[in-house]
Amino acid sequence: MLKKWITAAILGITAAVMLTACGGGNQQGEQTAQPATKIKVATSFNAMKEFVQVVGKDKVDVVTIIPDGTEPHDFELTTKDMKALSNADVFVYSGLGMEPWADQAIQSANNKKLLAVEASKGVKAITNTDEDEIKEHGQYDPHCWLGLNEAQIEVQNIADGLAKADPKNADFYQKNAKDYIAQLKALHDQYAGKFARVQKKHFVTGHAAFAYLCRDFGLTQNSVEDVFADGEPSPKQMAALITYCKKHDVKVIFAEDMVSPKISQTLAAEVGAQVKQINTMESSEGGKTYLNAMKENLEEILQSLQ
Ligand SMILES: [Zn+2]
C-alpha cells in the first residue's frame, strides 16, 4: 500500500516537474517569437547613426536618411525619406545647418508621436566667417561631431531623447551614454598633451570640416573646399593654398573621397606633400567605428605635424 502511494507520488512529482519544464520552455519560445518592440529611430547621416547605436544598442532600429556615398551638404530630401520619418518614433539630426531640410521633413512627416532630437543643442557653436556662406548656409559651422568635446554633448542629448521616447529603458540609455562619453573624453585627453608638444599647428583637408577638432587641440585648418564643400577652388584660391602649404611646411594633404580628391592630389604634387585619407564620418568610413576613425584622424594629423 505504502509502496503504491510512493510510486504514485513520484509519478505525480515527475509529471509536475515536466509540466513546469514545458511551461518554462513555452515561455521562452514565446519570448523568442515576440521580441520586445524596438524603438524606430531615423537619423540624418552616418555619425548620428553610430551615436544612436552606441546608446540604444539592441533596443533601437536605426535607419539613416542620407545614403552612404552621398555628400550630405548636397543632399535633397525625397518623398521616400519623409516616409521614413512618418514611421519613426525618434528623429535624430545634428543641427547647426547640417540638415537644412530637417524642419520641413519633420512637418511633412505628419507624425504626432515623432520625437525630434537636435543633437547639437547646447554645444558652443563656431560661427562662419565668409559672408556668402552665411547667406547660403546660415550662421554656424555644423561639423560639431568632429570635436570630441562637442560629440560628448551630442551623445548625451541622444540618450536624453531615447530615454524620453522609451522611459522604461531610460537607465540603459543613460548608462551606455556615460560609458561612451568616458571613451570620447579619454581619447581627447590622450591627444591634448601630444598636440600641445608639437610646434607646427597647420594642416590641409578636403573641406573645412575640422574647426571643432582644431579648437579642441589648438590647431588651424585650411582646405581645398569650404565649410559646406561648395565647389572646387579657383586658380587664385589654388595659388593661395600652395603658398599656405609652403609657408607652413605642410607635408600631408588630407583628402576625402567625396570632396575633390583629384584637386587634393594636384595640390600635394605641387608642394611635394603626401596624400592621406581623413574621416569626416559624414558617410560611412569603410565600416570604421567613430572612435577608430577619430583616433586615426588625430594620429595622422599629429604625425603630419612632427
Ligand atoms: Zn561637411
Automatic annotation (TrEMBL):
The keyword Signal applies. Keywords: Signal, Transport. Gene3D superfamilies: Nitrogenase molybdenum iron protein domain (3.40.50.1980). PANTHER family: HIGH-AFFINITY ZINC UPTAKE SYSTEM PROTEIN ZNUA, HIGH-AFFINITY ZINC UPTAKE SYSTEM PROTEIN ZNUA-RELATED. Belongs to the bacterial solute-binding protein 9 family. InterPro entries: AdhesinB, Bact_metal-bind_prot9, Lipoprotein_PsaA-like, ZnuA-like. GO terms for molecular function: metal ion binding. PROSITE patterns: PROKAR_LIPOPROTEIN. GO terms for biological process: cell adhesion; metal ion transport. The keyword Signal applies. It comes from the Bacteria. It comes from Megasphaera lornae. Pfam families: ZnuA. Residues 1-21 form the signal peptide. This is ABC transporter, substrate-binding protein. SUPFAM superfamilies: Helical backbone' metal receptor (SSF53807).
